[in-house]
Design a protein that fits this description.
single chain, 683 residues, mainly beta
Length: 683
């Protein structure tokens, strides 16, 4: 289903494709997938050995059981017949891409060094390859370069300062002789965002660009920060400001620019961080930087004065599209807020913006000004609660979207999910809490006020007409994984129900599926090894809770795997082994309601982000209702308070008191009993 019609449009498309082929270096022929966004900054591959007419022959070529735990959202890269990926706490693996033989493994010892930064961070979402080097970021803030052939560490750069709350989960971006890395942390600490460029060969810092202004009394790094400070009020710098570049970027060789997507404010609630209002530049923006110097070129802000966690950290895809009878270089961007943006890459001018999912925070985007026309009630004024769509998870969440220049369509995972926003009881008395919980600056929603049940879908979107082409419903919320698309007219994606799926890029018709025995939400890649096309993807649940229908994945019995497919592959996965442990209800244990209430608060502040709301895990972390450790007070304290399992990814909480530890045990036991009859009946 190609949306471009007419001789003029067809000529423009053909010209764009021919120009791209002529300009593309050998590394961009599709043989390699060396960076997070693929060979074309579109999550698109020009390979077509595996096509719509032969994909039925696709089979498992090999698999590898990952023995270092989670990080199932990590995206592999492939270069020169070797597949690289980071799993667990940024442990980098190098494998023969054709056979799955492990060539080397590198452990940066994050568990020993990350400390409190492990609380909000789940591992690496991607790595990068360039010029014989593999680059990986770590949760303790290091950027590391490895020899791609041997795994030997070449250099390490500490990109953050000790105890500043920053951490790295996103992929590095490589171009020219530089490697660029951002960081996260603004949700959990008082953090000011920035990106830093380093020399690929030496690790020497080349430049750094801050995304929000600091304390005016200390001066400004550049004119961009001086201008930005005029859009903030109060003493925002005491909260850090936020604006971290924790996920997507894109390099544009045509203009030699790096585009970065910035995050939400710290805290979320603008009434706290900038009480007099203002646009709060450069939060929730795409910023164009000179790739050589890091100097500001232009920006486009999707949410001025953002107050809902609608960050612009989702994919930044580069394309050439016929707009108004002219072929224009554009950015395609679908951030959390539910609007799809087409932006001129050269000037930063907004060309079009239309909603691709349910949203009620804005009437529309004004193309004359580039600004949203907001609905005032969405800002939850005067202490009044508001159900706002989308939720902070986003209409387009973390999972990658892709663009196919042959079909002209974008393929993106979407969520239909709302959230209740309300101020805390006292704006004046609110204070941030480092590392313990997300600093939203929001209050507790009133009882009975809930949004509709959430759902998910894979949406094929035409960025020229700003209309949908087709849509595939998900089987559950957060049910659609990251996507990749190919010249073989294929869209590759996984599902929360355990199916790795391939559909027609033009029609959405399912062509092939594979039972991965666990959720597949990471983005797939495709590449050549020995002249043969392969498809690889990480399998393993990243769901922190169980929602809706579909399979329930158990952290201890599911296998975290690298799966690799090829035409006429003959491999098979072994049958699942092990049984889900029973709920530990401890009949002789008396639950104290007061202690359980204290434990519920502690759990919400420190534990729910990994182990799931209401102690119901979806597979991203162990199911605590089934843990025998909870039944042993000494063992429980050794894990939480003393950090016994830090090396395995379990954070340490030395600030927890004896009463708080006891409260957690009472709350977990209470939840096990409350859910024992219904849960065990369904197993």
């Amino acid at each position: 289903m190609v949306w471009f019609t007419g001789k003029g449009a067809a000529a423009l498309i053909l010209a764009a494709m021919l120009a791209a082929c002529k300009a593309a270096p050998a590394a961009e022929t599709g043989a390699d997938w060396a960076s997070y966004d693929g060979p074309t900054a579109q999550h698109y591959s020009p390979l077509d050995q595996i096509r719509e007419d032969n994909v039925g022959r696709l089979g498992l070529a090999w698999y590898y059981d990952i023995d270092v735990g989670g990080s199932s959202m990590t995206a592999p890269v492939a270069a020169d017949g070797v597949l690289y990926f980071a799993a667990g706490r940024s442990q980098v693996h190098a494998m023969d891409a054709a056979t799955g033989k492990l060539l080397w493994k590198y452990d940066p010892n994050v568990g020993e060094l990350a400390g409190d930064r492990m609380r909000p961070a789940w591992g690496s979402r991607g790595i990068a390859y360039a010029k014989g080097r593999v680059f990986v970021g770590t949760m303790d803030g290091r950027l590391i370069a490895l020899d791609a052939r041997t795994g030997r560490e070449l250099w390490t750069a500490m990109t953050v300062e000790k105890g500043d709350g920053r951490y790295i989960t996103g992929a590095p971006w490589v171009f020219g002789n530089k490697v660029v890395i951002g960081h996260g942390g603004a949700d959990f600490a008082m953090v000011r965002g920035y990106v830093t460029a380093y020399d690929q060969a030496t690790g020497t810092q080349a430049w750094r660009f801050y995304t929000v202004p600091g304390d005016p009394a200390k001066g400004f790094e550049n004119k961009a920060m001086e201008r930005a400070a005029k859009t903030w009020t109060g003493q925002w710098w005491k909260h850090g400001g936020g604006g971290t570049v924790w996920n997507a970027m894109a390099y544009d060789p045509r203009f030699n620019r790096l585009y970065i997507g910035t995050g939400n404010g710290s805290p979320w609630n603008q009434k706290l961080r900038s009480p007099g209002g203002g646009d709060n530049l450069y939060l929730c923006s795409i910023i164009a930087l000179d790739a050589d110097t890091g100097e500001y070129v232009w920006h486009y802000q999707v949410n001025p004065g953002e107050t809902w966690d609608y960050n612009a950290a989702m994919d930044i895809e580069l394309a050439d599209l016929p707009i108004g009878g002219k072929l224009r270089p554009v950015i395609l961007h679908a951030p959390k807020n539910g609007f799809f943006y087409v932006i001129d890459r050269e000037t930063g001018k907004l060309l079009s913006a239309e909603p691709f999912a349910r949203q009620n925070w804005a009437v529309r985007i004004d193309l004359a000004t580039g600004r949203p026309i907001e609905r005032p009630e969405a800002r939850y004024p005067g202490g009044k609660p508001a159900i706002v769509y989308p939720s902070p998870i986003g209409a387009h969440p973390l999972e990658a979207m892709s663009f196919n220049p042959r079909t002209g369509l974008v393929y993106m995972p979407t969520e239909d999910r709302g959230a209740v926003f309300i101020d805390p009881p006292s704006l004046k008395d609110w204070t941030p809490r480092d590392g313990q919980r997300i600093n939203t600056g929001l209050g507790v929603p009133p009882m009975g006020l809930k949004p509709d049940a959430p759902s998910s879908a894979l949406l094929a979107w035409n960025p020229v007409t700003q209309k949908p082409a087709w849509k595939i419903p998900g089987d559950r919320p957060q049910g659609i994984g990251g996507t990749a698309t190919t010249a073989g007219n294929l869209v590759l994606f996984g599902r929360g129900n355990g199916q790795f799926t391939i559909v027609s890029a033009t029609t959405g018709k399912q062509l092939w599926a594979f039972d991965a025995q666990t959720a597949v939400l990471a983005q797939p890649i495709t590449y050549l090894a020995g002249g043969r096309q392969y498809i690889s993807v990480i399998a393993g649940s990243r769901l922190r809770t169980v929602e809706g229908s579909g399979a329930v994945w158990d952290y201890r019995t599911q296998k975290w795997r690298m799966l690799t497919f090829a035409l006429d592959g003959k491999g098979n996965l072994p049958k699942p082994v092990g049984q889900v442990a029973p709920l530990v209800t401890e009949p002789g244990f008396t639950v104290d309601p007061a202690r359980a209430a204290l434990g519920a608060t502690v759990f919400a502040q420190r534990c729910r982000v990994c182990h799931g709301p209401a102690v119901i895990s979806g597979g991203a972390a162990p199911e605590l209702r089934r843990s025998t450790v909870v039944a042993d007070p000494a063992a429980f304290a050794s894990v939480l308070h003393d950090g016994l399992l830090v090396a395995r990814g379990m954070p340490q909480f030395p600030e927890l008191t004896t009463d708080e530890l006891a409260g957690l045990r009472h709350y977990i036991r209470q939840r096990a009993r409350e859910t024992s009859s219904t849960t065990q009946a369904n197993e």
